[in-house]
Write a structure and sequence with these properties.
heterodimer, B: alpha/beta, three-stranded antiparallel sheet, 11 helices, about 35% helix
Chain lengths: ~325, ~270
């Protein structure tokens, strides 16, 4: 992926082109988004809230369209601010729905997701149908389109991503505690709900910032797939965050690179496919948790049952330990 | 570290733990009625009762995890929020995801987080404390292991070690013996007895009558209401047990064994 830096041709010989300064800055900005989305997304996955981010993502479209209607401007900052507000509004509705109706979590999430998305699509197609000047291209927020980003846009995305990662790292101890054992955290005096809201808000921020890269429909892949892939390789939260971030960078850069080379190709699907490929590799090849490792362990224990190999002592017999108190 | 206020020698105004007319409801359905219970001295205290009797709910109410519909609960005469740091907690093992990517020592370190406060990371002092706590429960050699790779009994001991790292004056344990092998049970009860001997109150929700008669100094029998409370030998009478387990025929067997056991130990 680092091959796009510098001025070498990207796709060897077939489509010779040089990388402009703008493309380079955009690639860096989107890479930062991919990293932050991967890092922040870990806690969505660990807290078993993967679909909440998806509801927020689908709700961004309403805000993007309304921000455009209200201001008549198409600056990325304005549109994303609108998207963030509607994403948070959707999460608010989700909280209320859970608290004041007897709707189950998954059903409530599905309802908020589809209603908000339906509303967003209606407004966007209304804008397109009426031919409001500047309104064309809003549908790019549906599937992502990094080719249209400016260097200034990329700086904005990169800065927000950096802040999100820093905030999460600052509260890493607290986030890990409430994700692992919320009732212990509550009993020892931590404001579990407030920390939860902080984490969900960070996911919402990353979903909004990820819109140009992956679009409202697919951006959830940036906050879910890299964490799940990363979990395959490690048993520690910090390592998982780092790996997930790197997987996010790889997926995002793949999307940017290919959509820069092939005109009119939406970025989002490419990002998803790239991260799905990483996930598949992780699922198969990861040591210990991967399919191949588990398969080998199983057949080894079958053949060598009388004398189990040193690599498979995940559950040592209790009796061999000694009392040490 | 707050000075341990628990000492058998010093005169004390209020009991270590006092439930006053406690009623708890889930929605509109009351699960605990008018519980009145005061524990004055450091001891191993068992809360015993059938499934669905509200034992765990009583603990959660004491820790502020479920709201009270009526009454009050006080530690050292103060509301729980004031004495939080003096209360160590061992939740039920099934309440967490054991596939979570943390190591044994990571989990034990969580016992030091409340003392550390916001944003401060554990340092050498906390690591020493965690190591010592793990040693006490006999898990020093698996400190680096992912928690899902332990047996049920070992997992429960990790939770106990985390509570030890809280350096509390009162320990509250929710079903610490559920799904735990005999050896771990013995080890856990051993640590709990040490805590009691060091002047701590240890409050345990427990379901097995046999081991209850064997280990606890005092017990409370609960079946939505308080049936009886006091020294184990005077409370675990066949009469009280019948009142607690009334209509629960599948437990008559256990009841018989418990009474028999009590006869042998006392």
């Amino acid at each position: 992926m680092t091959g796009i830096a510098g001025t070498t041709p990207v796709v060897g010989g077939i489509l010779p082109l040089t990388i402009s300064h703008n493309t380079l800055v955009v690639a860096c900005g989107v890479a930062a988004v991919g990293f932050a989305a991967g890092v922040v997304g870990c806690f969505g996955v660990l807290r078993r809230r993967a679909l909440v981010g998806d509801a927020a993502a689908h709700a961004t479209l309403v805000g993007v369209a309304l921000a455009f209607l209200a201001t008549g401007r198409r600056e990325l900052s304005v549109l994303l601010a609108g998207g963030f507000i509607s994403a948070m509004a959707a999460l608010g509705v989700l909280v209320l729905l859970r608290r004041f109706s007897r709707t189950r979590d998954d059903a409530a999430t599905a309802i908020v997701l589809s209603v908000a998305f339906g509303l967003g699509i209606t407004i966007v197609s209304g804008i397109t149908a009426r031919g409001i000047p500047g309104g064309a291209g809003l549908e790019q927020f549906l599937l992502g389109h990094t080719a249209a980003l400016t260097a200034a846009d990329a700086w904005l995305l990169g800065t927000i991503s950096a802040v999100a990662v820093l905030l999460l790292l600052l509260a890493l101890k607290e986030a890990t505690l409430i994700a692992f054992d919320p009732s212990f955290a509550a009993a020892t005096g931590w404001p579990v709900t407030a920390i939860d809201y902080l984490l969900v808000t960070l996911v919402a921020v990353m979903v909004v910032v990820g819109l140009p890269a992956a679009g409202a429909v697919l951006v959830t892949a940036l906050v879910v797939i890299p964490p799940v892939a990363a979990r395959q390789w490690t048993d520690r939260v910090p390592t998982m965050l780092l790996l997930s971030g790197l997987f996010g960078v790889m997926s995002a850069l793949f999307g940017v690179a290919v959509s820069a080379v092939v005109p009119r190709l939406a970025t989002g699907p490419l990002v998803v496919l790239a991260s799905a490929f990483i996930f598949l590799c992780s699922f198969v090849a990861a040591p210990d948790r991967g399919w191949w490792a588990r398969h080998r362990r199983r057949s080894q224990t079958e053949f060598e049952r009388p004398n189990p190999p040193g690599g498979d002592q995940s559950k040592p017999p209790e009796d061999v330990e000694s009392f040490s108190t | 570290m707050p000075a341990p206020p628990v000492s058998n020698a010093s005169p004390r105004v209020s009991p270590i733990l006092e439930f006053h007319d406690v009623t708890v409801a889930y929605g509109r359905r009351p699960v605990l009625w008018n519980i009145d219970l005061a524990i004055d001295d450091a001891c191993l205290f068992g809360i015993i009762g059938p499934n669905g009797a509200g034992k765990s709910t009583l603990l959660k109410a004491a820790l502020g995890l479920v709201p009270l519909a009526g009454g009050s609960i006080r530690f050292f005469g103060q509301p729980f929020a004031e004495v939080r740091s003096q209360v160590g907690y061992v939740p039920q093992r099934e309440t967490v995801d054991w596939d979570f990517p943390v190591s044994v020592s990571d989990v034990v370190l969580m016992g030091t987080y409340a003392r550390l406060g916001w944003f401060r990371r554990p340092g050498p002092r906390e690591r020493d404390l965690a190591r010592e706590s793990l040693k006490r429960v006999g898990l020093a050699d698996v400190a680096g292991r992912q928690i899902g790779k332990l047996s049920g009994g070992q997992q429960q001991r990790v939770f106990l070690a985390r509570a030890l790292a809280q350096q509390a004056d009162v320990y509250v344990l929710d079903e610490p013996m559920a799904g735990v092998d005999a050896r771990s049970q013995e080890l856990i009860f051993g640590v709990l007895s040490e805590l009691r001997d060091a002047g701590r109150l240890v409050l345990v929700v427990h379901h097995d009558l046999r081991t209850a008669a064997q280990w606890f100094d005092r017990v409370a029998l609960i079946d939505r209401r308080l049936v009886a409370a006091g020294p184990t030998a005077t409370v675990l009478t066949s009469e009280n047990l019948e009142r607690t387990y009334v209509g629960r025929l599948d437990l008559l067997d256990e009841l018989g064994r418990a009474v028999e056991e009590r006869g042998r130990t006392s």
